[in-house]
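ligand=nicotinamide-adenine-dinucleotide
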Amino acid sequence: MSYLVTGVAGFIGFHIAERFLSQGQPVTGIDCFLDSYPRPIKEDRVQRLREYSLFRFVEQSLIEANLEALLDGISAVFHEAGQAGVRPSWGTNFHIYVENNILATQRLLEAVTHARVRRFLYASSSSVYGNAPELPIRETSPTQPISPYGVTKLAAEHLCSLYWKNLGLPVVSLRYFTVFGPRPRPDMAITIFAKAILAGEEMVVFGDGEQSRGFTYVDDVVDANVRAAERDVSGQVFNIGGGGRITVNALIHLLEEIIGKRAIVRHTESQKGDALHTEADTSRAYQALGYQPATDMREGLAKTVASIREFYKL
Ligand SMILES: NC(=O)c1ccc[n+]([C@@H]2O[C@H](COP(=O)([O-])OP(=O)(O)OC[C@H]3O[C@@H](n4cnc5c(N)ncnc54)[C@H](O)[C@@H]3O)[C@@H](O)[C@H]2O)c1
């Protein structure tokens, strides 16, 4: 078995690749170091993967790469590449989302039709739901994104299901709910909050902090991908969440306890495009994949804080 991980220098792609490599399975990774956040953070991840002799890295965009050659000998594709982040998707940057979330996915799907890939996992997002009418959110909930980012993630998910329905491509879409864990993205709330508390600096909370999220530990996301690659679930869509939800205020309290310091918080107005509450109903993933989140919030946060401390020397 040989795997292709797209967006391998990114937060989630790195963890998927590391899981397979640590089990002695070969991984080809592709990433174009999109400047969505500082390159050294992505290089650090790739450097860690290069320690495995079974890792092959291609620095290129999916939009330009010779995908036929890249897919040669690959049994499963984990498509994690994309432009993440809800707030910057408004305004003049939208073309970056269209190119890297929609066009790149379409190009990859097209190439997979000529390859012998057994499974294609697409990293979808809870943002396809927008403000869901009911919690926890089921896969049957209406998909009504409230951000341009969510629109591009949903468009790519639709492309995946078209390639399944019309061409029989073995595609599975996993809708991740806010993922966290070691070697995180710098733009995510947990990274920003933890860095501020560690440095004794002020942090900004949008709104009153009573908005809530269903957070998912990255090892659980990796586990869901491995399960979906092994089972015959092509054409299906699954919520991948961590169980329950927590408010931003409660998250900050947990971080204060773990770090042992008080946060200095300033509240500003809410941001357009942010869902008020998210929480995954993961019963479909449990029934079809045997997926169950295994890491609790405190344990996962402690590991995340340790990694932030080490990387930023705080
Ligand atoms: N992190 C989350 O909470 C979360 C939640 C839901 C969905 N997702 C999805 O999961 C995927 C991974 O997210 P992440 O948090 O690891 O983000 P990330 O930004 O850390 O990783 C994405 C990687 O993809 C690369 N990339 C982007 N466009 C590319 C292209 N055209 N060719 C090659 N490489 C390209 C980027 O350089 C980056 O390293 C994304 O598709 C994102 O939309 C993430």
